[in-house]
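The instructor's notes for this session suggest beginning with a concrete chain rather than abstract definitions. Hand out the sequence below and ask the class to guess, before any prediction is shown, which regions might be ordered.
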Amino acid sequence: MAFLGELEKMIITIVDKDGVEKGESIKLLINPEGYKESYTVEYNEDQENNSGGKKPKFYKVKPGNFTFKLLYDSTGIFEVVDLDLKETLTSIADDISGFIPFQDDEAENNNIVEEINKIKELVAYQGDIHKTYELRINWGALELKCILTKLDIDYKLFNPQGFPIRAVATLTCKQNTSEVLRLAKEKKSSPDLTHIRTVKEGDTLPLMTYRIYGDSKYYLEVARANNLLNFRSLEPGTELIFPPLDKTQSA
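After discussion, reveal the predicted structure:
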């Protein structure tokens, strides 16, 4: 079944620490067949003496890992077939062996060197802060902010002059949403998680403690966690950490 309308392409943008785009975005010529998304759930498995083998306590869900396999091809095989056949051709492309008979004067034009060089730019880093750039990957419903953790390029086919004409680039990325923002989006309010709250006009430590833990009596522990010497007068705009509490110990 053919779909009407223009085919949306995956777009990868490099962004610096100030949120400014670096260079032109990379618009893929061939969309990936799919991508892998995975999450790791962490538990606190520390056991106390004579605890009777307590069940592991949920700690957090780590930022997601994403894997993309991007196909680069300049043989022309994807340009002369109907859109519905591209998925099939992608799966059988690796089985095509031998050389594509380009003429000598076509060798430098019919290859994927330029496109591969663009994808290599994703591993650049910001010298002033010694960190890699943030990537923003957009494709349909996917709106991902991430950092690149690994880039593999598997060259599959070459023309007679030795220029690569088919390759698969595997991008492995880690979601770059901050822990605080991620938990806020998930609307987590469990007292077993670490929370950061900004003091507003009229807030008191017992009141803020009650909102997090459902009981204001833990405010002294919160004060200790934040090294507050004068917790009776909170300055609006101050950020406070509300750590996970073992209520059995605090009771």
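Then share the key points. The chain has a mean pLDDT of 77. The longest strand covers residues 142-158.
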